[in-house]
Amino acid sequence: MRWWQWQRQWTCWSCQWFLLCLQVYDLDNRLKFSNDDFDVAIFILNNRSSPMGDNKLTFCKYLLVDTSGAVRKTQEKVCELLKYRNEYDVLEEFRSWSPPLLPVSGTDLLSFDIPRGPLYKRTIDEIRQKWKYSDFKLTKEELLEMVPQILEEVKSTPVKKSPKPKRKRRN
In whole angstroms, what is the distance from residue 144 CA to residue 127 CA? Predict the structure, then answer.
């Protein structure tokens, strides 16, 4: 596939997603969804075509850990996504799985003199990723041993800043 074909196809995909979002917003205006129902609709829209790979249960676990919000509500969103995709066998397995808690808390990082702010958040996010990719098996001690290495990686990685729109001056 040549770059212009990919660009045309990507534009088509992004337009379709945008149109579906508009339809969800329009439906919300007409039916007056609750906030939770609206969030579920947007979650399904965002993740409906994500490739699940060979191990679908692992995909669901990772999606649960990577999605922000309360665990119970996020678990309900993933269950609704599985229903949408007609994956009822995975749905039963996922419902029987109880998500573990991240063994490292923010107070554990205070001993490493990490200042609160973006560096703190990026460090805890990286710890969560390491724990996730170990299939939730790393212990608190093992994760805390990794903190100096993770901190160096996070410090060396530049922060992506979103450009702020410039304000127009009045004459």
Answer: 9
What's the token pair of residue 104? 């490292």
| Gyration radius from the chain CA atoms | 20
Q: What's the CA gap between 25 and 95, in Å, rounded? A: 29
Neighbours of 61 (CB within 10 A): 19
- Find, among 17, 76, 87, the residue nearest to 52 by Cα: 87
pLDDT in tens, 54-71: 999 999 999 999 888 888
Residues with Cβ within 8 Å of 82's Cβ and at least 6 positions away in sequence, in order, are 60, 88, 90, 91, 94
Please, are residues 47 and 81 in contact by the beta-carbon 8 Å criterion? yes
pTM above 0.85, yes or no: no
